[in-house]
């Protein structure tokens, strides 16, 4: 019997992260659900299924990320979903720089920190999949959204990080891509029309790419779109 592959999902206690973890679990993956609050992560894992694992992971703290690696062990796939939107309603001239700094710390540096910790195991194994959650608000083709300037800029940086990681791991068996799920109804966007199930399907599809699939691209509803 084939041993199931393991996927780690950050920010997995609710929203797109939880829906993605549950979709992967249904597809036969071994799933590790990570969240800042250990109890929330464990509750989400219990909701997902008897073999799911919940661990604490604060992407802004190096010691927390290291502890999560110890708890989860090497993983085959990483979904970098943990993120914040703190500056709705501001514009680039009025947004407090402290809010921008806090946003970048989670959305960009946190994602980078987690990738630096977990992706080298994939490179050594010769196989891996990484998906970073992005947004159309951070793309130049669509235009950065000025009413959430720190968030939008953070997603532009996530797009850049995706291309950097993909270039670094090219030819190793690891594929690194970003997914723009669109406006999705979550606590961050309670009035959005998109569902977390649809967003999760997009992420799972990117994780299921064949070995000769694309790397370093942005997906939207299963199609490659421009940065």
UniProtKB/TrEMBL annotation:
Kindly give the InterPro entries that the UniProt entry links to this protein: NAD(P)-bd_dom_sf, SDR_fam
Pfam families named among the record's database cross-references: adh_short
What keywords appear on the UniProt entry? Answer: Oxidoreductase
Looking up SUPFAM superfamilies in the UniProt record yields:
NAD(P)-binding Rossmann-fold domains
Q: Does the keyword Nucleus apply?
A: no
Q: Name the coiled-coil region(s).
A: none
**Is Iron given among the entry's keywords?**
no
GO molecular function terms listed in the Swiss-Prot or TrEMBL record: oxidoreductase activity
Of which family is this protein a member? Belongs to the short-chain dehydrogenases/reductases (SDR) family.
The protein in question is named SDR family NAD(P)-dependent oxidoreductase
Species of the source: Streptomyces auratus AGR0001
